[in-house]
Design a protein that fits this description.
Number of helices of chain A: 9
Order of helices and strands of chain B: EEHHHHHHHHHHH
Strand content of chain B: under 5%
Largest interface: A-B, 70 and 56 residues
Radius of gyration of chain A: 19 Å
CATH superfamily of chain B: Formate dehydrogenase/DMSO reductase domain
CATH architecture of the largest domain in chain A: 2-Layer Sandwich
Number of domains of chain B: 1
Number of helices of chain B: 11
Oligomer: heterodimer
Strand content of chain A: 15-25%
Radius of gyration of chain B: 22 Å
Shape of chain A: globular
CATH topology of chain B: Formate dehydrogenase/DMSO reductase fold
Number of domains of chain A: 2
Chain lengths: 246, 316
């Protein structure tokens, strides 16, 4: 059994339902995403098109993140999923540096690396990943790619020649496929990022990797003594305090 | 988005996305690599000197060399630990080692290397300073172990090579960053060790023989020259992948990393090279010390740029 994922970009309408479902299911903290949908505009007005590309971990058969992880926190499951054991992670960020798809992040709450696991916990219980369930147009197709009767295998066979993976030249052998994609949607060098592409703010790059609210010293102390619990009110207080300082 | 921005008709533009991570491996990793180069470099260059010269010509090298290495290896290890987001879990590298990872292999080798260097530093120091801690059991034990120093030294020199090189393998395993994929990174690491190893020993070589000092200047000049040529080759002609090309294009276009790179090249490579060459003809202690200091600063700047620039590229 080898689980794989396929996204039919011809169907995706950019509703971000999968993104939200993933956030909720996996309790992904603010400023982090296991799955995101990127909007790309192509052409010059009025001859423009907009494409939507869901991006998540590719669960590579030859995963660079698994290879570089010094403590096997990243490991393969029998079903092909590249899983992560955050209790073992030392937070070296080697996997973030190794992943050619930028799919791994440093969780700001646990200060350990994290990523999409194809909802391994749900699959174990015989359920589909949260993003698959949430998709209103069934653009996310998930299943066993070694089983030729599975939906995903049949879909791939029906669209032979049109199935793509991201960065095939990296020889990672990803188990995440796209249909209806092109160079401009799947190749990050083929599109331009201009300041202000975010919906609610102009932040294009995160200033912090991992926990932004605690110092390096806290990293040594917190595992033993714990640290102050942060909630939404704490963030408001912090904001007010910083205003007061100014 | 500014509407006045001119966008090519065929160019795609990201109109909505999440914030991407910025620099992930920052100055602490630069400092880590720089300190490790000194820690291993003084051993490698020291071994060359001990092979070519009598120990009497190299006053105090037996204790100064491992002591300097010990200090810089500890700086390297301290910043390795500080850069971890879960530093207390570092022990997992020893409890659950994953041997395909250069981080694991490197951590084990660096720990062994630092352990051996500590023993050498203690033996060397107490041997050279027989008046210190004369009645201390520990100091006398170190003195008794004196022959052990010469026994482990060849192994330490041998181990210094992979300890120097393993960071290049980590960078090669970081397959997302094409600029680091070149095998040249391995050679650069080795040359860096010889460069800063000789530069550091120059600073403590006042009482050494003229020939030994000349050798140090020669090693500095050769390692700088080769490293500079490689940097120039990579900087101007690294068209091996679209990512590497895009990274370099970003630096070529100017900005702070362009300034930092050329400052590093001027301070750490071009100026010290000519100082070292001139010192081969006629010794000038002040000038060569100044050149050695510049080489140490310049290497930090060059490594910093090379570490950070591939991280500026969006991966998805």
């Amino acid at each position: 059994m080898k689980l794989g994922f396929l996204v039919d970009l011809n169907l995706c309408m950019g509703c971000k339902g999968c993104e939200v479902a993933c956030k909720v299911e996996n309790e992904v903290p603010l400023s982090s995403w296991r799955l995101r949908v990127k909007y790309i505009d192509i052409g010059t007005f009025p001859e423009t098109t907009r494409s939507f590309t869901p991006l998540r971990c590719n669960h590579c058969e030859n995963a660079p993140c698994e290879r570089i992880c010094p403590v096997s926190a990243l490991h393969y499951l029998d079903n092909g999923i590249v899983n992560i054991d955050s209790s073992r992670c030392i937070g070296c960020a080697g996997c973030i540096m190794a992943c050619p798809y930028g799919a791994i992040y440093m969780d700001p709450e646990t200060n350990t690396a994290d990523k999409c696991t194809y909802c391994a916990h749900r699959i174990e219980s015989g359920m589909m990943p949260a993003c698959v369930v949430a998709c209103p147009v069934e653009a996310n197709i998930f299943g066993d790619i070694e089983d030729e009767t599975s939906h995903i295998s049949r879909y791939i066979m029906e669209h032979q020649g049109g199935v793509q993976v991201r960065k095939p030249e990296k020889n990672t052998n990803p188990k995440h496929y796209y249909i209806g994609g092109g160079n401009q949607t799947l190749n990050p060098l083929a599109h331009e990022r201009i300041e202000g592409y975010n919906l609610f703010n102009n932040i294009t790059h995160l200033e912090h990797v991992g926990d932004p609210n605690h110092s390096i010293l806290d990293r040594f102390i917190a595992p033993v003594f714990g640290h102050e619990k942060l909630d939404n009110k704490s963030f408001i207080d912090m904001k007010d305090n910083s205003k007061g300082e100014n | 988005m500014e509407h006045s921005t001119v966008i090519e008709a065929t160019k795609a533009v990201v109109t909505l996305d999440v914030a991407l991570p910025g620099i992930i491996w920052g100055w602490m990793i630069t400092l880590n690599m720089w300190a490790k180069s000194i820690g291993t470099g003084v051993i490698l260059v020291g071994a060359v000197l001990l092979y070519r010269h009598k120990r009497e010509e190299l006053n105090g090298i037996r204790w100064k060399m491992p002591l300097i290495s010990f200090i810089f290896l500890n700086i390297f290890l301290a910043f390795t630990l500080l850069d971890l987001h879960q530093p207390l879990k570092m022990v997992n590298i020893f409890l659950y080692p994953h041997w395909t990872s250069a981080i694991t292999v490197g951590a084990w080798m660096a720990t062994l290397f630092t352990g051996l260097i500590t023993i050498m530093a203690l033996i060397g120091f107490f041997d050279a300073h027989s008046d210190i801690k004369r009645h201390s059991l520990f100091a006398n034990l170190c003195r008794k172990m004196s022959p052990f120093y010469e026994m482990i030294f060849p192994f330490v020199v041998f181990l210094a090579i992979p300890v120097t090189l393993y960071t290049a393998i980590i960078m090669a395993e970081s397959s997302a960053r094409e600029l680091w994929q070149a095998p040249t990174e391995l050679t650069q690491m080795l040359l860096s060790a010889f460069m800063v190893g000789s530069a550091t020993l120059i600073l403590i070589s006042d009482s050494w023989s003229r020939e030994a000092k000349r050798d140090l200047a020669l090693i500095l000049a050769i390692s700088i020259f080769l490293s500079f040529i490689m940097y120039m080759g990579e900087y101007f002609f690294s068209f091996k992948s679209a990512e590497a090309e895009a990274t370099l294009e970003y630096v070529h276009s100017g900005g702070e990393y362009n300034i930092e790179f050329w400052s590093g090249m001027a301070l750490g490579y071009i100026i010290p090279f000519f100082i070292a060459i001139s010192n081969l003809k006629e010794e000038n202690r002040t000038l060569i010390r100044f050149g050695a200091l510049l080489a140490l600063i310049g290497l930090y700047l060059a490594k910093d740029v090379w570490l950070k620039i591939p991280q500026m590229l969006p991966l998805s």
